[in-house]
Amino acid sequence: MTGQLLTFTGARVVDPARGVDEIANVVVEDDRIASAGEESRGLRIDAAGLVISPGLVDLHTHLREPGGEDAETVATGTAAAAVGGYTAVCAMANTDPVCDHAGVVEQVLRLARDAARCDVFPTGAITRGLGGSELAEMGSMAALGVGCFSDDGHPVQSARVLRQAMAYARTWDAIICNHAEDSDLAAGGQLHAGEVAGRLGLSGRPAEAEEIMVARDLRLAASSGVRLHVPHVSTAGAVELIREAKARGVRVTAEVTPHHLCLTDESAVGYDPVFKVNPPLRTSVDIDALRRGLADGTIDAIATDHAPHSHEQKDQEWTQAPPGMVGLETALAVTLTELVPDDELATPGGAGGAPPDGLLSLSGLVDRLSTRPAAVWGLSEHGGPLEVGAPATFTVFDPQERWTVDPAALRGRARNTPFAGRRLRGRVRYTLLRGRFTCRDGEPAEPLATSPAVHP
Ligand SMILES: NC(=O)N[C@@H](CC(=O)O)C(=O)O
């Protein structure tokens, strides 16, 4: 008990889990929501014009620790998360050493307990050392609460190995998240295989490399009964494959990144490696399909694939630079700016009626950034509902505030944002995790020293 009592007054509460979009006062007592209505008690924070949503949940974050501390640490990555409105991140396994056994899971949880500003859920590797041939110690990681396995960055090429991993994961009802790319077909590719790659004289990574792998993984998932999660979907064909599989009842979920929702391969024309990413930025046809897939529920979640790289690593000529972009601090603003029409912001309930094709209501956006990703991972303490007695885990943002992305002002350790200089709409003011401020007035608060997060 902290003895804390405070009220956010006059906020627009957007809580997809309850289907609520209304003006209310939200009273926080200790770590819980004490009321959400007309009551106002304790310290008052004027939230008129601000939105309160459940804390954002990122299914795909590279925190880099252990081993990549020059690019990011648990402390800096979760500071970026808090400023971006996130209360939970799922940390990818491509660390050094790889998170392929219990020791590294414990290490990440310990680092999170000591230094994190949000809950951290480690993802376990599927194969030892991300090597693709021998299974990682999935059982010992599952015993620690790891609920998702991924070799992200290293697609599992062997169908035999992935099938075996699915059979194990099925026994704990864990998720298999395979980076979907046929490495042979994509070999040597520097950006999307299309007209721009031809013009720039760079070899390409074809859309089919993703689609062939998605099709294979869906087939394997269908027969194993495992929960398959397709990360960073980037092609129109992959969206269609997932749509068809969902219609057939395959247990599949999917995510898309903010950058794949709004940047094309044209960004590469200046050979600036900040636009180099896996999967590569594609075409406007793909963007259109991804947006429609997100709007119709084929794609469940927006995930950042926050992939920090140090200046020394990233600032090389295109072919030498590692792929990856940071995203935690811009995801909400980018998607609010790009996907939510102006009239949705004016009043609770928005303009009334469905938003135009491929766009989202404000509640729809919060759903894809928070409620659905929390449901995909089964994070019952996240994603709402923001009801009386629930944890005070929420984000308070100004949906109208305009700001310009300045890489030097980012709170994470790395600067490799593709949105530098972009004018965006929507800024986080406060983030609360179980009643504790992790971001206050747009600044990260001190680390929480929380108990380690485990998968429920
Ligand atoms: N998404 C990226 O472009 N980079 C990822 C790994 C990867 O998926 O290649 C990273 O860890 O840097």
UniProtKB/TrEMBL annotation:
The keyword Hydrolase applies. PROSITE patterns: DIHYDROOROTASE_2. NCBIfam families: pyrC_multi (TIGR00857). Pathway: Pyrimidine metabolism; UMP biosynthesis via de novo pathway; (S)-dihydroorotate from bicarbonate: step 3/3. This is Dihydroorotase. Binds 2 Zn(2+) ions per subunit. GO terms for biological process: 'de novo' UMP biosynthetic process; purine nucleobase catabolic process. Its cofactor is Zn(2+). Zn(2+) 1 binds at residues 60, 62, 152, 305. Catalyzes the reversible cyclization of carbamoyl aspartate to dihydroorotate. The active site is at 305. Signal peptide: none annotated. Residues 50-235 form the Dihydroorotase catalytic domain. It comes from the Bacteria. Its EC number is 3.5.2.3. Belongs to the metallo-dependent hydrolases superfamily. DHOase family. Class I DHOase subfamily. Keywords: Hydrolase, Metal-binding, Pyrimidine biosynthesis, Zinc. Zn(2+) 2 binds at residues 152, 179, 232. GO terms for cellular component: cytoplasm.
